[in-house]
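Troubleshooting: if your tokenizer reports a length mismatch, compare your output against this known-good record of 372 residues.
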Amino acid sequence: MNPEKRLRTAGGGGAETPRGEREEAGREVDVSIVMPAHNASCWLDECLQAISEQDFTGSMELSVYDDASTDDSRQKVEGWRTRLEARGVSVVISGHSSAQPKGVGYAKNMAISQSCGKYLCFQDADDIMSPHRVRLQYEASLLNPNALIGCRVQRLPEGSTERYTRWINTITQEQLMTQVFTSHGPTVVMPTWFCSRNWFLKVEPFDEGGKGVPEDLLFFYQSLRQGGGLSRVNQCLLVYRYHEKAATHSVTEETIWKLRVDFLQERVLSQWSGFTIWNAGKQGRKLYRCLSPANQKKVKAFCDVDENKIQKGFYTYEESKEIPKPKIPIVHYKAASSPFIVCVKLDMTGGVLEENLNSLQLKEGTDYYHFN
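Known-good structure output:
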């Protein structure tokens, strides 16, 4: 499903050019703001106004790829060209007018391939960057050239995703790495990404599978596989808008679940000889059933705080073809042994889960990983 690495010209037809070449020989700027757009007209004035107000003193360009909009998104961007160029921001716009959009991954790849910045600042057309965003993330990226750089966000409307927003803004630098298996998705959230072009080209283009494909999570995991780092500017540099038309809503929970399980097995469970699943309920059992047979055999026990579950004594894997069917013990968490995969949702127990983990003096990323 992944396209081969390539760069294209800015023409609406999307003709390909060899990787590494530019549309114009010698054209290069410090930062390209990469913006896919599809029917974004109602948000573009605020978005583009914020881009025009950046305090970054280096050279910038805005690269927009319009993915079959049926509104006046492309014309709206064109209408801002003079104002943006007056502020020193060059503008590259292209797109296609097919009957159906080709998806966010395709539009991002096209916007990147027609751009020429040494660094890439990803900007969704419905979000608003602070005046300091490009400058601060550029400075951070110079120090971390092989990393995805994020930032804190303000969610709009306020309170629309309270737990998710709190998680984005409060996880530590270490947790950017250790919590990559949680259901929240990339610990450095896509609308805040900033990275060097060289690193993007080393990883791979975005998956172009279209609607329903989590192109950001696929790229995020591939970046980690390549040894990439993660970092966050601890300032709010983006107004991150929540609305029903956001592309993320087209991705199913099961698609994300499978990607997370596969990455967990690849990165963590492959290194462990045995482990305990922290949650004998629905989520813990689901994780067990999704593991490979080899990793299922590594599960020493389920642990829980629910006495009703503990009193059952064991979980029987009825779907197994083995005879007799596997029976996994269910024990109290204080009687369980590390390492753990914790399948209890964060920030949902009034701090009880966190207190229980702390009581065992466990180290996240060594003794346990969060999966929910």
